[in-house]
């Protein structure tokens, strides 16, 4: 796809910076992608995403947009980035993962996945071909191949079957594409078995996708195992294509992923936690509802220059939380997303300066202070 390009810029150990060019603009990597499941990053406007948060690409979900408003509706509005007035790069997940985690159970066959809508219970079916058809209607700059993500722990035999099916579905996803203005990424599976991860990486990277993702992590395994498998998997991924770790994770996870050579991340954590009153700061997590903040005039994070931290006290944010005010959710989401985007920006700078390892060590140490 010639309207999509990845340039590897600097490397520092295995960490790397790069530039992704898409029809809707450029993305500096490593990057965090805020999740806009139904086409909106919950409570946050596109202007805030751009000006206050520094987001460069947002994510939408095939499954949700197919159900509502319908992918044909999005297509008629000129595609997702125009429909939601974001007008910048977008990525859609392929739907399989959301079907497995949200829809009422489903039958997986080689043909595709049968499931019931979580909205009205109606019977639906998504195959690799159908996922690509829907994703082409949604029109994101980056589409994802249709894959099967197994929850962990799972029997090795099942992990093997899902991995083989993911390979067949990857080829079918690749062959189903009929547009040339959208990139398509393949997804590596293989559970937490190193030999399977190597096989899956070799299978998926044998198909000339525009980029490659690591799926099937952060689905029930221990954190050190997740890091080990992520580190192992990037070893088998091409250096000249973007690498995307799907649905991960905490600020700590991003720092580790970057050290293994991951370029892209997405997670609902900053937005979902914000709506639950949990804030990420340079000194660890902070629960805004706690009584101890009642009289605090300190910002959430003294090291943060987001709109929330520049203007509001912990005491006021606690009050908004207690009162169930929407503004509280908005201000918390603004801060958490700003924190994530500024973390990856600082990581990019550290890589360019060749000091990533030190940066990571110091940042992790400061975040583990906690106690706030
Ligand atoms: N596959 C897809 N989307 C995903 C995942 C996956 O394995 C994950 C796993 N962390 C999150 N989102 N298609
Ligand atoms: Zn802030």
UniProtKB/TrEMBL annotation:
Query: Which reaction(s) does its UniProt entry say it catalyses?
Result: 7-aminomethyl-7-carbaguanine + guanosine(34) in tRNA = 7-aminomethyl-7-carbaguanosine(34) in tRNA + guanine
Residues binding substrate, per UniProt: 93-97, 147, 189, 216
Domain (tRNA-guanine(15) transglycosylase-like) spans 14-367
User: What NCBIfam families does the record point to?
Assistant: Q_tRNA_tgt, tgt_general
In UniProt terms, what function does this protein have?
A: Catalyzes the base-exchange of a guanine (G) residue with the queuine precursor 7-aminomethyl-7-deazaguanine (PreQ1) at position 34 (anticodon wobble position) in tRNAs with GU(N) anticodons (tRNA-Asp, -Asn, -His and -Tyr). Catalysis occurs through a double-displacement mechanism. The nucleophile active site attacks the C1' of nucleotide 34 to detach the guanine base from the RNA, forming a covalent enzyme-RNA intermediate. The proton acceptor active site deprotonates the incoming PreQ1, allowing a nucleophilic attack on the C1' of the ribose to form the product.
Q: Kindly state the subunit structure of this protein.
A: Homodimer. Within each dimer, one monomer is responsible for RNA recognition and catalysis, while the other monomer binds to the replacement base PreQ1.
Q: What protein name applies here?
A: Queuine tRNA-ribosyltransferase
Q: Which organism is it from?
A: Denitrovibrio acetiphilus (strain DSM 12809 / NBRC 114555 / N2460)
Q: What is the lineage of its organism?
A: Bacteria, Pseudomonadati, Deferribacterota, Deferribacteres, Deferribacterales
